[in-house]
Every structure is written in structure tokens, then in C-alpha cells.
């Protein structure tokens, strides 16, 4: 996964902690279980059995595939702190590289959902004046996440991001 | 001659006639919806027996308006605002008190809105956009003169407008809100608005769908029964409503459109004038909206023309400005429209005023030909260019769009690539600015160029930001 198009200008990506993969696996499993479980349940109740079985089979394949892919998707994520900007990358099929100048960050948040709490990790989310930016750094241990947030907030433009 | 206003730091109330106007607005809205209801009743053949006597409706209406009026009076009685040297503060509430304030440096744009009733009483609403979804401050209602005074004061503080430009302003025309001393850039005639509207892509497409559906229904009715026509007609109502909304947005609300330049002459050299002052757009038939946008606050421009506008040489300009209201929510707003319709010369005038001494015509580079597999219908129109000051993209032939974003307004830069792009050896670069109609996407570029473009854009944005006047 070392495509020069999506590489940081220098240095290496910092990848999510291993707990992130486990947390994502559980979340992915539950999501797809609900997405296919509800229609399969409805079909068993109201339609002939071949419908429920075929939808269930498709659901099972998708679920297994997604859960297998979790590890690769998580490892494809990364961030790098440069002098003036923060670089964030993600995706395998749909790859992206987002670069946010420190001066443009309006809010830096640390978030933890239920699974992230179980596995002792947190997500740092960056908010600029553009909703397109959508950069977040998941899979960081909470203390590190708080440090990163404080560092990024400090680097933020004191002039209110120059709007 | 109006003199520049000096802040006293004392709190004051909105104009005493406010409850009356608010009460009337509520009454008019009720009356309107009632008439609509009655209209639909009449269409119902056997609704006769269930209809309510008219005097019950009338009494209910009056009572509601009265309650609305009393509520408005209480609101008015407990609303106070203070404008001092640093901020605007508004305090409201009787049982639940709330206080909101906006520091001057956060002011993005200021609207003076006069609804129809407000115009009769000479009252106006002052709206201060301060960025963020809920940071909008509304002072309603003030006397027209007071609203203009406060606006000028706020702009002077927020943008460093020269106050001598304000003191020499003469009395404004009540119809157009333009005073004799204003530097008028553009005026639009009703003819221009109507011609522009009738030839606009939005109108033609909606009207075409309407006509085609009507013909379809007619054929259906002729082939089978009249029932087809009766069942189908109500389905077309949304289309008619859409045309009405378009006409209201681009014609009725733009009548008497006048764009003036404010706060000029506040610097000896072009560099000092850069980013100072702004434009004020006044327009409207029944309600009059006057919106001032400081040049600094323009985050991006979209200059576009539909197919029929090309032979006529007509364009429309939309802008990204932070805190622009959602136009669906408020019918008096101009939304993101800067110029509803204009000639190439008028567009050039606006660009020259908003982005002075700026290179807006970089060499445009087309996307590689292999992107035709992904964009078969317009691949030859995808172009982009970078000047020392701005990013420019162009695309489309049915609807030609040119986007301009100053480097200093770059919020973030992204590179993206999907599986098909990967197979073709392409990648897209996005230069993100604030939310609005201007979204720069430089799609389907050679990966090496995409990378170079993205990284160099960061440098340009940094340089522009550091040199921005403050």
C-alpha cells in the first residue's frame, strides 16, 4: 500500500492501534447483521422459504466479506503531522488523501463510541469551515488522542482560521 | 446628510411599532393559509354540508391574530440590544432570559430586510450573519434610518470601512434603497430579469417537463377516458409550484436590483484598498432586501450560463458567503445569488470590484483524453487553471460553469481515486472551501499532476493566507 500518490511528503504514516481493528470488526458485524437480519426475519414470516434463504445467503456472504476486509481497511488508514498541515489517508478501492492546514482547524474533537471504549481507543475529528473536509483519525489511545487534540488546537490559527 | 453614529453603549429597544408589524405578519400568514384551505374546500363537491359558518372562522382568525400580537408585544417589551465598540449583544426573554452576542470581527454579511408591512411603516429588520449555522442575529424591527445607521457602523468596525464615505451619504430612495452619493455598479431592468428568466435552463427544463406531461395526459384522455386527465393533473401541481418559486426567486425578488460599492476610497494604493469595503445589493418588489457583503467575505464565485444564454451573452453569478441563509426557509432572502442575470461586461465589472488586481485568467489545462470513458458527454469541457491568486475550473456545455476560489479561502485539499480511475490512471483533486454553491473539483487528472497540484495548492494557500490584509 505504498502508492506515491497518497504517501505523506516525508516520513511514514502513523497507523491505528490494534484495538481499532477489533472494535471495527464488532461494529461491522452488528451493522450487517441488522441490515440483512431484519429483511430475512420479515421474509421468513411473510414469504415462501426460498426468498428468506437466498437473501440470507447473500447477507452471509456480504457479512463475512466485510468482516474479513475490516483489518485491511483499518491498516489503510493513517495520519502524519507535518510542519504546516495534517495529512490523513484512508481507503483501499476508493483511496483518499486529505490535507488540512493547521490554521484552518476550527474545532478538534475527541470522540469514543461504545466499542472504542471497550478496546481503549478514541477518534480525533477535525472540523474546518468546509463540511467536505471530513477528516478523522480513529484508533488512537485516549491519552494520545487528548495530547494530539491539544497539540492541534494550539497550532490552530489564533485569528479564527482566517475566514 | 446623515452623520456617522457614535456608539453610546446604552441598551435600547426595537421600534415600538414592532408588535403591530409582527401581529400583522402573523395575521396575513393565517389569512393566506385560510384562503388556501377554503379554495380546496370549494373544489370538493360534497364539502358543502360540513363547512363552518364564516363568522366562526373570522372570530378565530381575529383571536389568533390578537394572541399573536400580545405575544409579540411581550417579546418586544423584553428585547433589548446593545452595540458598543466591540460587539453586538441582544437580550431577549421574559421567563427564560437569553443573551447572544457577536464580536465585530466575526461579522460575515449584513442584511437589511423590509417586509411589505414594514415598508408601509418605514421599519426594517437588521440581520447579522456571523458564520456557523445558528450564529445569526436578528434585530426586528428598527426604523429604516436606524437600521441603516447600525449597519454602516457595524461594517465600519468590522471591515475598517472609512467613516467619511459614510458621512457623505445622502438620503436613500425609498423604492430602491439607493442614495445619490452611492457608487452604482449595476442596475437590472425588469426586461433583463424576465428575458433572463424565460431563457434560463431551470425554467426551460421545468416548463418542458410540464408541457410534455400535459401532452401525454391529453393523449391518454383522448385514447381512453377523461378520468386519466383528472387523475393526472394534480400530479403536475409541484411542477407549477416549482416554476412559481423560480419566478419569485429570479424575477419578483430581484426587481429593482441595484448593486452599489460601499466603503471605497479608504486606502491610497490598490494594495491598501484590497479587501476593504464591499458591495451592497438591494432588490425586491413587495419586500425590499438590502444585503452588504464585504469583499473579504466572498469565499468563492460561480459564474454560469445555460445553453440559451450563450448566444445572448448572459451569465449568472452565485457566491459562497458564510452564514448565508437557507433560501427555502425564508422567502425574502437572496440566498447565494450575487447577480441573477448579467452581460459579460457586468460580470467583468463585478469581478474587478470583488477581486481587484487579481489574475483571474490562468492558462486552462484540459483533463487527459482518457477520462472520456468516465465522462463521455463532457470530457472535452473539463478544464482547470491556477493563477498566483485563484484556482479556476470550467466545465459543461449544456450548462457552462466557471468556478473561482481565491487561494486564501482554501480550507483543505483532498486527492481521491476510485477503482475505475485507478484502472485508467487518473485521480481527482478537490480544493475545499466553505459550504455553498462553489465546490472546486479538479477531476480525472494524471496522478503525478494531481499530486503536484494538491501539494503546491497547499503552499499557495499558505502564502496567500499569510499575506492577507488584516
Automatic annotation (TrEMBL), chain A:
The keyword Membrane applies. Signal peptide: none annotated. The chain crosses the membrane at residues 21-43, 49-68. InterPro entries: YdbS-like_PH. Keywords: Membrane, Transmembrane, Transmembrane helix. PANTHER family: TRANSMEMBRANE PROTEIN-RELATED, UPF0699 TRANSMEMBRANE PROTEIN YDBS. The keyword Membrane applies. This is YdbS-like PH domain-containing protein. It comes from the Bacteria. Pfam families: bPH_2. Residues 75-152 form the YdbS-like PH domain.
TrEMBL record, chain B:
InterPro entries: UCP026631, YdbS-like_PH. This is Putative membrane protein. Keywords: Membrane, Transmembrane, Transmembrane helix. It comes from Propioniferax innocua. Pfam families: bPH_2. Residues 76-154, 279-326, 387-446 form the YdbS-like PH domain. The chain crosses the membrane at residues 20-41, 53-76, 203-223, 229-252.
